[in-house]
Amino acid sequence: MLPDFATTAQQTYPTQATHFNELLSNGQLSHLYLFVGSSQSTRLAFSRYLAWQVVGATDRNALRINENEHPDVHLVAPKEEGATLKVAQVRDLTPEFVTTTLESPKKVFILDAVETMTASAANSLLKFIEEPAGPQLILLLTNNLQDVLPTIQSRAQIVHLNPEISLVDTNDIDDSWQKNTQMLLFKWFELMMQRKIEAFAYVQTTLISQITTDLQQKMFMKWLRELARDMVVYSATADENLRFPSLIGFYKTLAKHYHVRQLVHAAEAIFADDKLRKINISLQARLEKMALEVTIALGE
User: Fold this and answer.
1) Domain boundaries along the sequence of the chain
2) Model-level pTM greater than 0.90?
3) Cα–Cα distance between 73 and 110 in angstroms, integer?
4) What is the pLDDT of residues 85-96, one digit of tens each?
5) Which of 21, 116, 245, 276 could form a disulfide with 84 if both were Cys (CB 3.0 to 4.6 A apart)?
6) Which helix (H) or strand (E) holds 139?
7) How many angstroms separate the CA atoms of 48 and 136, rounded?
8) What are the contacts of 122-125 at 24+ separation with CB within 8 A?
9) Distances in Å between the alpha carbon of 92 and those of 50, 97, 111, 139?
10) Which of 77, 88, 16, 15 is nearest to 44 (CA)?
11) CA 11 → CA 104, 154, 170, 230, 274, distances in Å?
12) Which residues cross the membrane (predicted)?
């Protein structure tokens, strides 16, 4: 079973979770990121999730990261709400910054609320950022980019963590509708992933008449994102961690026909729907565009 921080990260930031997993698998992860997110709990969850992927996504590592006991993962935050991140807290990390890992490919440092960091604390941190002792990943977290010192901003890759989905209460949706709609979704997903022209007509002839309320639409899109996630991560996680494990045979078939890069890009085309939803484009237009973008991604 996935740890809570991993579930939160994958549900709240599915696109970023997929993107960073791809960077990690391709050896393209930078050593310094500045994560900007309004929710402290979800940005911490995402950072722990990334740290878990770096040091090894095992149950034992998840437990140690969750309890701040992993020897290669270090989390620092203000000691109480409204307090600042002090220079002494950064200097306390000196032995960890200047030594190599104990059991992992990289050391991971997570510093929350860096917008509260004093100039002296920032200067201490910059010394370690500019001269890392070994393989390191430094994750700086903030809820307000404008308050982060320019010397920090200029050295980090800035990533805005914007929640991509809202959790939906399935108790408010009829069970028979859920079962029927999932079957229709699976069929449409199969048509898309096979790059069949029928995927476009299926939107108008079948899906639109089935999805008639905002709540149903949210549920449908949530399932679709979970399908895309399963398709990308199924080989790297246990079956019980998948949302739709009954489709693992289909995921394996896709893996034989496409490169992982193509599947990741197809998943990103699905996750990109959230931007279209925010500018008030109809569901039919969004799904048809998605089918086109997935077809293009799989043909690259």
Assistant:
1) 4-160, 170-298
2) no
3) 8
4) 888 888 888 889
5) 116
6) strand 136-142
7) 15
8) 122/149, 122/151, 122/152, 123/151, 124/87, 124/90, 124/91, 125/90, 125/152
9) 23, 10, 13, 17
10) 77
11) 26, 30, 15, 12, 13
12) none
Q: Which two tokens stand for residue 9?
A: 């990260």
What would the pLDDT profile of 124-138 be if each residue is shown by its tens digit? 888 888 877 789 999
Instruction: Write the single-letter amino acid at 29.
Output: L
Mean pLDDT for 156-167 is 77
Percentage of the chain lying above the pLDDT 90 cut: 45
Rounded to 10 degrees, what is the CA torsion of 58, 64, 70, 75? 120
DSSP H or E run through 137: strand 136-142
Give the helix/strand (H/E) hosting 128: helix 119-130
Q: Looking at the domain covering 4-160, what would its CATH class be?
A: alpha beta
Separation between Cα atoms, residue 18 and residue 264, nearest integer Å: 7
At position 79, the amino acid (one-letter code) is: K
At residue 39, the 3 state secondary structure works out as coil
Quick one: which of 120, 121, 130, 137 has its CA closest to 154? 130
> What distance in Å separates the CA atoms of residue 95 and residue 76, rounded to the nearest whole number?
14
Per-residue pLDDT of 217-259, as tens digits, reads 888 988 998 898 889 888 877 777 788 888 999 999 999 999 9
Tokens of 215: 């709540």
